[in-house]
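job 3f2a | input accepted
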Amino acid sequence: MSSSTGTTGTSTVITNIATLVTNDPSLGDTSPLGLVRDAAVVIDGDRVVWTGESSKAPATDNRVDAGGRAVLPGFVDSHSHLVFAGDRTEEFNARMSGRGYTAGGIRTTVAATRAATDQELEANLTRFLGEALRQGTTTFETKSGYGLTVADEARALRLAAAHTDEVTYLGAHIVSPDYADDPAAYVALVTGEMLDACAPHARWIDVFCEKGAFDGDQARAILTAGKAKGLHPRIHANQLSYGPGVQLAVELDAASADHCTHLTDADVDALANGNTVATLLPGAEFSTRAEWPNARRLMDAGVTVALSTDCNPGSSFTSSVPFCIALAVRDMRMTPDEAVWSATAGGAAALRRTDVGRVTPGAYADLTLLDAPSHVHLAYRPGVPLVSGVWRRGVRVA
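job 3f2a | predicted structure (398 res):
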């Protein structure tokens, strides 16, 4: 079907949409969300082929009545760690009783993940993916990082690649316990044999650049080696303390610098003048009682901001993007419009994608239907299961 008339194959119109978020200002009210009131969307195959006012919708084979509810792009969760075994309930309980968060707890998950079978890891992965999908997430990135051996990192990526194209090699999550006395040897493994085994299964390479993990020089060596193998950089940056991560991300043209909690003015300026997205992960601050990132400072400086869950068993065990939107509005001083944009188009930018995160002709038909008349309800009614329908690649899946 063209953008206005005719059909090819089976086409569907979703009509009677109270508020449609397109993320294309030219299609709607000229705001960044490109809002269209009393709207309709036409899907043909796996793509959106038309958006506009309901009264102007072209004829289609099928019709779905949205019942005066809101439709927005499927959420793009651009940072998660879903290939793991076990949980860290005891660590969370202790943290909520006053113990601080450090990167060291990752070792607990490494031990459990190494001991798990492929079937156990994949069952865990698919469970969390289903959980996220029911909450409106239609595109997700996920990482390795809980194996820290050549075989375990490669199998994590192989399992992840069966479920998403957005797979990230994170052998540099922490220094493997097996190399605790020789971090340089572990960096050599991560940039050598492990990289060779993992690169065929991944699109991205990541590193945790932080005290207790990898310093700036180590992070540069790891990301540079990944680039030489065709993997594009992203980086865990400036989460627990000030450090070189953000500057390194911009220098290496990383798609995303993730966390961005402790930033200097120079860090903010670098992000504003580069192509790197600042991905904020409020679930981590919620779960660790840490300082909130200053989203207002970043957005006022012109930095592109994404919101993601950071779903992992240690510091942010949530798969709910709506929950993160509510946190961002309440505690990071984002407006509801900004938070929704960052969880959709912003997440797409963090993955350097233009075919997701928006409801525009040519984009994938990834849609979320809310049991509410406006996207603002995602922050207005926190904790309420508002997602009442999800289409992924043109197929209704929830």
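job 3f2a | The radius of gyration is 21 Å.
job 3f2a | closed
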